[in-house]
């Protein structure tokens, strides 16, 4: 694809994703009005109400303005990463998120790497040994993993590897790179299990589909080695559907971190979202929801770019036909 084609592709994708973020931001902002009671009730909760406090909230959240005007003001501030102050701590929402975000990003990237390595590797192994014992064992384990929620896997891993075997720490994020890597191993495994099972099934099906193609048979008939056929013909074509799933997998890892972080007492975005929802801290919920939405949108954009890079058959508009 030419540089102009790439630029058009990115511009079109960014326009669609920007529109999606506008829709998400409108829904997130509307939470303030969908909650039971008045906006003042939602913002103050059980805190005491004084005339000065009511006047401050009316001015801070522009409650004397029409709804769409309030949304426009909120969205323009959100673009500058200003979501107001937390009801619980009175600290800026951005500061609260900034403190928690590194742990969640580390956990998400760690779980994503484990998912790709295990999912692709086991999927290829199952496909190359289809209808054999190894294939049946891998597929059976994938079915069990698909049926197990991440927080249940987390509790099981805590009991088995954290309490019984005492191999890994069961709480806290650790300090330093290797300390975080060690402490976040169990949460990352718990978070990766379900996504790995999905990836195993898709990789296995994709590889089996490629194995039955004529060009693989011809490559073997030409006397090419098994490793050359695998890397040059099978994986090159079979991994295209896997790349397509990468955005979905990364989105799952991000959203699934909510319960996993709470299970392992990790001070990340997921735990912050649970705590803010419990306390009905609407400004904090809005800020965290928008950050998660932006990360998911960027993850899907990266997946689209990766798919365009690995599959030269994909073109834009009429060029794809």
From the helix content, strand content and strand pairing, which structural class follows?
mainly alpha
Percent helix, as a range, is over 70%
Radius of gyration: 24 Å
CATH arch. level architecture of the largest domain: Orthogonal Bundle
Could you give the distance between the termini? 14 Å
Give the CATH H-level superfamily of the largest domain. Answer: MetI-like
Report the strand count. Answer: 0
| Number of domains as seen in the coordinates | 2
What name is given to the CATH topology of the largest domain? MetI-like fold
- What fraction of the residues are assigned to beta strands by DSSP? under 5%
Quick one: biggest sheet?
none
* H/E element sequence: HHHHHHHHHHHHH
CATH class of the largest domain: Mainly Alpha
Mean pLDDT: 82
User: Which parts are unreliable, with pLDDT below 50 for 5 consecutive residues or more?
Assistant: 316-321
Q: Could you say which overall geometry the principal axes of the C-alpha atoms support?
A: globular
How many DSSP helices? Answer: 13
Index terms:
321 residues, mainly alpha, 2 domains, 13 helices, 0% strand, disordered C terminus
Please give a structural write-up.
With 321 residues, the chain is mainly alpha-helical. The protein folds into 2 domains: 3-79; 96-320, Orthogonal Bundle (MetI-like fold). Helix content is 77%, strand content 0%. The chain is built from 13 helices and no strands. The two termini are 14 Å apart.
Question: TL;DR?
Answer:
The protein has helices at residues 3-34, 39-44, 51-60, 67-79, 93-128, 133-146, 150-164, 176-183, 185-211, 214-221, 226-263, 269-278, 282-310.
């Amino acid at each position: 694809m030419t540089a102009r084609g790439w630029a058009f592709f990115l511009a079109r994708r960014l326009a669609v994703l920007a529109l999606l973020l506008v829709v998400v931001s409108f829904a997130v902002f509307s939470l303030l009005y969908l909650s039971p009671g008045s906006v003042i009730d939602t913002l103050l909760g059980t805190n005491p109400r004084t005339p000065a406090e009511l006047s401050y909230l009316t001015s801070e959240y522009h409650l004397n303005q029409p709804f769409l005007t309030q949304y426009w003001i909120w969205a323009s501030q959100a673009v500058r990463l200003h979501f107001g102050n937390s009801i619980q701590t009175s600290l800026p929402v951005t500061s609260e998120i900034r403190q928690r975000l590194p742990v969640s990003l580390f956990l998400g990237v760690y779980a994503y790497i484990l998912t790709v390595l295990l999912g692709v590797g086991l999927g290829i192994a199952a496909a190359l040994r289809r209808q054999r014992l190894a294939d049946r064992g891998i597929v059976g384990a994938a079915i069990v993993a698909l049926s197990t929620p991440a927080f249940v896997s987390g509790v099981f891993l805590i009991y088995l590897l954290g309490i019984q075997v005492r191999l890994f720490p069961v709480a806290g994020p650790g300090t330093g790179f290797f300390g975080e890597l060690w402490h976040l191993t169990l949460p990352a495994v718990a978070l990766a299990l379900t996504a790995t099972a999905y990836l195993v099934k898709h990789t296995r099906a994709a590889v089996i589909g490629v194995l039955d193609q004529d060009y693989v048979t011809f490559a073997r008939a030409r006397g090419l080695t098994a490793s050359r056929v695998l890397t040059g013909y099978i994986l090159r074509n079979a991994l295209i559907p896997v790349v397509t799933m990468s955005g979905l997998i990364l989105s799952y890892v991000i959203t699934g971190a909510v319960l996993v972080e709470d299970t392992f007492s990790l001070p990340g975005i997921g735990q912050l979202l649970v705590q803010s929802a419990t306390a009905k801290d609407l400004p904090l919920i809005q800020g965290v929801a928008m950050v998660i939405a932006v990360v998911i949108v960027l993850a899907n954009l990266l997946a689209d770019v990766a798919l365009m890079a690995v599959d030269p058959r994909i073109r834009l508009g009429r060029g794809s036909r």
